[in-house]
Amino acid sequence: MKRKQTELSKKTSYQKLKAKYSVVSFFCGCGGLDLGFAGGFSYKEIKIPKLPFEVLAAYDNDENCIKTYRQNIADHAEVKDLSSYNPHSCPPADILIGGFPCQDFSVCGPRAGLKSHRGRLYQALIQYMEVHKPMIVVGENVPGLANVMKGEILETIKKELSGVGYQVEVWTLFAPDYGIPQNRTRLFIVAVRDDLNGFPSIPIKKYTNEEYRTIKWAIDDLKQLRDDSVPNQSQYFKAAKSKNRSQGDETSPADSPSYTIRANSHSHIQFHYALKRRLTVRECARIQTFPDDFIFPHSTTTNMMQIGNAVPPLLGNIVAKSVFEFLEKLK
Ligand SMILES: C[S@@+](CC[C@H](N)C(=O)[O-])C[C@H]1O[C@@H](n2cnc3c(N)ncnc32)[C@H](O)[C@@H]1O
Fold first, then answer.
1. What ligand 1 atom has the least distance to the C-alpha of 118?
2. Which of 53, 137, 58 has its CA nearest to residue 91?
């Protein structure tokens, strides 16, 4: 009887969580932001509850990203070049998410801005919005976007989003404030359809400087592990430290959040705080808050790129919660 009741209550709580809101994901990469929206994963000892979002379709033009995504999340991901696509080929959804490519906006990128092909890819989001009118759109990018051409590019993007019928806000979130053990700042461009009242609240900071989770907190238990009993722990760049001190050759202090995990590290990922080697793929995934059962199936270079490009799932989840709370208030 007792068992029956437990099963019943499990079923009831599942039903309560049955997806209420549909999501389409652009530029999904390996799925960091998507995992944040879906929830239902464990990071270290922290259990992230499932959120009632269902990702219907996810697109990226990189086959390797789609392979990682499908292997770890679900097979709704497909290869699609969003620089020239037909929005009618995508399903309508309540929410559109998309960390559009950032190389041209990044402080370390060439800063070609909107002139470049990659710089215009945010327009894929706008094309979808014009056709399907999702309630909410969440775009993500590097903080450098706010400074390119003295902020003109960000203003242009905001204007174009408003032009198709949306209110727009930009949230600058510093990941350690939300429990991510990494110095990483990201811009979230949040747009709400004009006919909806109000706006999601910018997530409240949870940690102060003294409380920040450190790199040691994130990866110390992996220190003695040389095999893949925790997946991807044996995979790391063997490149020696360069003679002229160059980016990526630093060592994160053990008692601070890690340096930013970069996508294009050219084999130069920061060194472990206690060992004479660079961080492993798993250690970088941990610092980015991926669960240990999220397996990266490619070479070190490709895996590191996917990890470095991702929104930390924990941060994505915090943004998703704010979107969910707003949607619930609309009723
Ligand atoms: C910053 S990453 C997105 C990471 C993702 N949001 C996550 O959390 O894992 C940008 C992605 O855009 C993809 N991309 C670049 N150009 C594209 C295009 N023309 N069509 C579709 N995807 C493209 C890249 O392959 C890359 O995975």
1. 16
2. 58
- Over residues 48-68, the mean pLDDT reads 97
What single DSSP character describes residue 118?
G
Residue nearest to atom 12 of ligand 1 (CA): 27
What does the pLDDT read at residue 9? 40
Minimal CA–CA distance to 189: which of 241, 154, 151?
154
∠ CA 219-36-31 to the nearest 5 degrees? 85
Mean pLDDT of the chain, nearest integer? 90
In ligand 1, which atom is closest to the CA atom of 31?
9
Dihedral over alpha carbons 190, 193, 194, 200 (to 10 degrees): -50
| CA separation for the pair 102, 75 (Å, rounded) | 25
Among protein residues, the one whose CA lies closest to atom 2 of ligand 1 = 309
Task: Give the whole-angstrom CA distance, residue 303 versus residue 213.
Answer: 24
Is the pLDDT score of 2 beyond 50? no
Chain segment 183-222, per-residue pLDDT in tens: 999 999 999 999 999 999 999 999 999 999 999 999 999 9
pLDDT of residue 266: 83
Q: Which residues line ligand 1 (CB under 6 A)?
A: 27-33, 59-62, 65, 81-83, 99, 101-102, 121, 309-311
Identify which of 37, 61, 68 to mutate to test ligand 1's pocket (most ligand atoms within 8 A of the CB): 61
Going by alpha carbons, the residue nearest to atom 7 of ligand 1 is: 310
Rounded CA-CA distance 33/12 in Å is 27
pLDDT digits (tens, 9 = 90+) for 243-300: 766 778 888 899 999 999 999 888 889 999 999 999 999 999 999 999 999 999 999 9
Domains of the chain as residue ranges with CATH: 19-206+312-329 (3.40.50.150)
Query: DSSP secondary structure string, 216-268?
Result: HHHHGGGTT--STTSTTTT----PPPPSS--TT--B--TTSPBPPPPS--TT-
Nearest atom, ligand 1, residue 82 CA: 20
| Residue of 27, 80, 95, 123 to mutate, ligand 1, most atoms within 8 A of C-beta | 27
The distance in angstroms from the start CA to the end CA of the chain is 37
